[in-house]
Amino acid sequence: MNLLLLAEDLHRDGNLVEAAWWWLIALAFVYYAWRQRGGARQRCWIAAAVFFLFGASDLIEMQTGAWWKPWWLFAWKAACVLAMPYLVIADYRARRKGAGNCESVNGENAVGDADGDSQQDKTQRGDPE
Asked: Does residue 110 sit within a domain?
C-alpha cells in the first residue's frame, strides 16, 4: 500500500475522531447547561458552542488537508482555542464569587447558591429556604 494514501487516510480518520471528540465535549456542556441557571447556564452554552465549532473546523480541515490553510480556517481554530482558556478563567472567577459553575447542579455549590449566598447567610438574614 502506498504510504501517501495511508497518511491521507490517517489524516482524514484522525480528523473525524477529533471532531467527534469535540462534539462529545459540547454535548456534555449542553447537558450541564440544562441543569444550570443564570451565568453558569450562559457559560455552559457558550462552551458548548465553542467546542461544537471547534469540532466542525476539523471537518473543514479534512477537506483542506491542513489546519492553517485557508487563512480563515486558521482564524476560526485560533478563535476557538483562545476562547477555551477565557471560559476556564470566567468559570473560575464565577466559582470564587460563589455564582455556580458548569459542574454544579442548579447553580449550587459548596460556596453558596447562584446568588453567592450560603445557607448560613440566608438563615442569618431570615430568608426562606
From this structure: no
